[in-house]
Backbone:
């Protein structure tokens, strides 16, 4: 019988530098199908660097190691190819794209993901269905991407993208950054709604806050310090980090 929680995304002994300065120093990490993995760590530990490397940001040089999707080495793949293959990244600060409505962006992205030119009607129907499930105003799809959006609206827009694009693995890079408690709960409920429809989705959420991990019901917690994963465990690890701080795990 196949393992229903088999490795989906695998990071193997990953070393990464920026302009010759080492940032990641041998990261090993697995994200499993249908699981929520949490990555925690102090500022400057390399968490966001890892997120950007996973999506192929050319600013970062992989000096050794590998990133694998379903066992296939994707380390050299550009961002758009990774997206088509089923990888999704929600940014700390989503980019504003003036003049491009949300519906147009989703049509282009979903057409690329499926390898066929989808009609605006097909995409609008899917988008409207998801906006209803996520409790979003139907007019949202006609607004320009992130232009004039509040922090909470930007995050909800990313959850809408996550729902419509149907990735296999989602990396949420401090998606709780700058959110109040109500907005945080809205984002967490949105992720839960998507996972209820697509239970095979693997999620890696990067966060400083145990509250977000509780809201998302993280299955596995990974602690990064100084460019390495130094501890792994269940939700109890997040509790220990909140109680003891990061210093207890520094070399």
Residues:
């Amino acid at each position: 019988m196949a393992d229903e929680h088999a490795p989906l995304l695998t990071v193997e002994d990953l070393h990464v530098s920026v302009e010759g300065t080492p940032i990641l120093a041998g990261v090993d990490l697995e994200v499993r199908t249908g699981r929520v993995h949490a990555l925690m760590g102090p500022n400057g530990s390399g968490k966001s660097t890892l997120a950007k490397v996973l999506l192929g940001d050319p600013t970062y040089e992989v000096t050794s190691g590998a990133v694998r999707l379903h066992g296939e080495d994707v380390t050299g793949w550009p961002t758009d190819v990774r997206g088509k293959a089923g990888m999704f990244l929600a940014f700390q600060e989503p980019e504003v794209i003036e003049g491009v409505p949300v519906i147009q962006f989703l049509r282009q992205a979903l057409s690329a993901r499926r390898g066929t030119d989808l009609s605006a009607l097909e995409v609008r129907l899917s988008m409207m269905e998801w906006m209803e499930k996520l409790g979003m105003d139907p007019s949202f799809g006609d607004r320009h991407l992130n232009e004039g959006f509040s922090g909470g609206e930007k995050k909800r827009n990313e959850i809408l993208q996550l729902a419509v694009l149907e990735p296999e693995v989602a990396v949420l890079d401090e998606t709780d950054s700058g959110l109040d408690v109500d907005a945080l709960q809205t984002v967490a409920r949105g992720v839960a709604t998507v996972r209820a429809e697509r239970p095979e989705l693997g999620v890696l959420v990067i966060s400083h806050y145990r509250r977000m991990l509780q809201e998302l019901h993280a299955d596995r917690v990974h602690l990064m310090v100084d460019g390495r994963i130094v501890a792994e465990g269940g939700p109890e690890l997040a509790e220990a980090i909140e109680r003891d701080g990061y210093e207890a795990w520094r070399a």
